[in-house]
Write a structure and sequence with these properties.
The protein has about 250 residues and is mainly alpha-helical. The protein is built from eight helices and no strands. It has helices spanning about 15-35, 40-50, 55-70, 70-85, 90-105, 110-120, 125-195, 215-240. Helix 3 (about 55-70) packs parallel to helix 5 (about 90-105) and helix 6 runs antiparallel to helix 7. The protein starts with 16 loop residues before the first helix and ends in a 9-residue tail after the last helix.
């Protein structure tokens, strides 16, 4: 991807000391930039614009040095500042072109497309900018398609979750209804059993087969006692009831 850099042709002006110093730092920055020493180039460009801070070359090349260090956000701010302060179409076209590059690297595709379009407005003949614009638009289209597919998937997942929740609720309701119906039937059956004299209940005598040995002995002893008492009563009754015959002496 082409990155514009403005090379200053030094024009010595002995009468302007600050301008000489500024151009000196810009020249040193350019040399370091060409050596791919972007950090030191950045420092020189910052010194150059610190003297007056108005030269396009110092500001523009500072943006390039930042871009080469992958400082895309800082580079974008630098090119935006240049574009906002210049009315020169050539400078504007290059500043927006590099701004588009910075936004593209930052994954800000819509901002990148907008910047390339502004660059072409100032220089419609720039094929590099036109190519970058097409590339950014294609990337943006792909991202929008991915976002749409992602949203559709999220919606499908959400609908599936809702259906699963509805199914679980219906299953739970059905189980509850089945249990309630079963409990109701059991209650009705128990009520009918209580009213049915043919049905066993708690007052029935115990099954002799299930009587323990101790209980059987107690029951037998009770029967013997009852029989003895009965015989004693009969005996007493005979004794009391026997009428004595009294001969009358006349």
């Amino acid at each position: 991807m082409k990155q514009y850099i403005i090379v200053v042709i030094l024009v010595l002006q002995a009468s302007i000391l600050f301008a000489q110093q500024e151009k000196k730092y810009i020249r040193q920055g350019n040399q370091l930039y060409q050596q791919q020493n972007y950090k030191d180039a950045e420092n020189n460009y910052r010194v150059s614009i610190g003297k007056q801070g108005k030269t396009v070359a110092g500001n523009f090349n500072l943006g390039d040095a930042l871009y080469k260090q992958n400082k895309y956000a800082d580079a974008g701010q630098q090119f935006s500042k240049i574009a906002a302060s210049s009315k020169n179409k050539n400078v504007l076209a290059k500043a927006y072109h590099n701004l588009g590059n910075s936004m593209l690297q930052s994954k800000k595709l819509e901002e990148s497309v907008a910047a390339y379009k502004k660059s072409l407005l100032n220089n419609p003949e720039d094929e590099e900018t036109r190519y970058n614009l097409a590339y950014a638009q294609e990337k943006l289209k792909q991202k929008q398609k991915q976002d749409k597919n992602k949203n559709n998937k999220n919606n499908k997942d959400k609908n599936k979750d809702n259906k699963d929740k509805d199914k679980d609720k219906k299953d739970q309701d059905k189980k509850k209804d089945d249990k309630d119906n079963k409990d109701k039937k059991d209650d009705n059956k128990n009520g009918q059993d209580k009213n049915d004299p043919n049905k066993n209940n708690g007052d029935q005598k115990p099954d002799p087969n299930n009587v323990s040995k101790d209980d059987a002995e107690r029951m037998l002893e009770a029967l013997n006692n009852d029989e003895k008492q009965t015989q004693d009563k009969l005996k007493n009754k005979k004794q009391k009831g026997a009428k004595m015959h009294i001969e009358k002496e006349w």
